[in-house]
Amino acid sequence: MREFLLLLFLILIIIEIHLNISFEYALLGLLLVCFSYMLLRRQSVKLHSLRVNKANKVIVLYLSFLLFEAICTIPSMLFETNIFAIDSMKVFLASQLTTAFVALYLAEGIRWDRFFLYIQWVAIVFGVFGIIEYATKTYFVSRVFGFIKPFCLPYEHTSMFRLSSFFSSPAIAALFFLLAIISLHYYGFNNLFLQILAGMIYVINIYGTRTRIIWLATAIFYCIVVARFVIGYRSSSAQSQRKKYTNYSYLLVSIILLFAMVGIVAFMWDKVIEIFDDVKNYLSLVLDMNNTFASREIRAGNISNVVCFLYNNPIRLFAGEGLGAGVEFSHYNAVYTTEGGTWNLGIDNQFLTTWLETGIIGIVLYIGIFAYGINRSIRNNNANVKMGCILLIIIFIMSVSMDVLWWKMCNFVLVVGIKMLNEQNKEKGLL
Q1: In this structure, are 261 and 393 located in the same domain?
Q2: Position 135 in a domain
């Protein structure tokens, strides 16, 4: 039952921004906690679960980071040194604190395989709508469900169209479908055809969002899969383990053959090559320092501005100005693109934003969450711990080009990854 409640909370996160119910979001989240407590007759917080031990140091580290963010913001709110401090504190309470509390409580003692099976079915439904959107290059979901706000209407019927399905942003849609791909690997369907079909739906949607940072994260995930597969197969001597890896190799080969058959039988090979060229060209816009692509110019300009500022103000290396400092910095240090555009809505880099807001202590705590998660995964064969580490790596990668802590979905994935790292049973997985 808790698995279903956690799924309801995830769906609430997805639709909340469309309904503009930030305050109600917090109340509904707490209502789910109260309902879970009454239904299962469990204590709202287990004190022994917060003791510092090997399993939950990462939770304590994460909670310490949240506390430090709030402490750094209090002086800015009292003395009004940061014009965005109060609004940013409201975002912090809704996006980070509420999401962390509700997700950590509802995830206590749940069966992850059952929860991610629910995720698979939701992702398939969302993915079908996403494919329709991308095929028609129209915001189909917004037309069918009037309360769903489209991402960017001017891009309809153009080559720059980015599907967003039921989500508030293509990047968030891409993150959700990447979460589905990862969970498909660890807790997939027993039916091979359904496994392959779901994987193809997710991949098509990730491509359709045209979110390069998720493309990169997906590629890194599959590199980890292949590397661990090879290492695991060679080191596995037991017949049962060998059988697991052999069956898994059949799945990978089946997916490759399926793509090949679609390309050859349907005479779509030229289209397949066109897609690969599109991906290569779209990614090369980031690497080419001479291009005037707005996304690259904005991020490069923000990095340059922040680095110059920190170099000329060494004290800010150690002391942040609290939540909202990143938005304030961007507001007064706008980036101008070659095409005449202006960007002053944020740094679009969580590491730099955290540094401006909390100083060196905050950035050490933030990076420490990921470092400790990776370290725990290396020393643990639990399948849940391995997947939790993967989720943390994804958020770490996204932090390079997004202010991830602004987004409830990113915070949810981060908290789920942290909670999965807390598993202590002996169940083993392939990765």
Answers
A1: no
A2: yes
What is the C-alpha separation between 128 and 408, in angstroms, rounded? 23
Provide CB contacts within 8 A for 262, sequence distance 6+. Answer: 268
The reported pLDDT for the residue numbered 294 is 65
Gap between the Cα atoms of 320 and 430, Å rounded: 42
Residue 174 CA to residue 213 CA, distance in Å, equals 9
Alpha-carbon gap, residue 420 to 293, rounded angstroms? 38
- d(CA 45, CA 106) in angstroms, rounded, equals 11
Instruction: Show the domain range for 44.
Output: 2-235+346-420
Asked if 221 and 247 sit in the same domain, the reply is no
Higher pLDDT, 98 or 236: 98
Helix/strand/coil for 44:
coil
Q: What are phi and psi of 382, to 5 degrees?
A: -65, 135
**Same domain for 259 and 198:** no
416 φ, ψ to 5°?
A: -60, -45
Model pTM? Answer: 0.84
Same domain, 172 and 266: no
Reported as a single tens digit per residue, the pLDDT across 219-268 is 888 887 777 766 665 555 555 554 455 545 545 555 555 555 555 555 55
CA atoms within 13 A on the CB side of 15: 15
Choose one of 220, 255, 287: the last residue of a domain.
287
| Bigger pLDDT: 2 vs 232 | 2
Q: Is the same domain home to 212 and 87?
A: yes
Domain membership of residue 160 (yes or no) is yes
In this predicted structure, the answer to whether residue 186 has a pLDDT above a threshold of 50 is yes
Residue 128 shares a structural domain with residue 241: no
Q: Is the pLDDT of residue 52 over 60?
A: no
What SS3 state is found at 88? helix
**Does some domain include residue 310?**
no
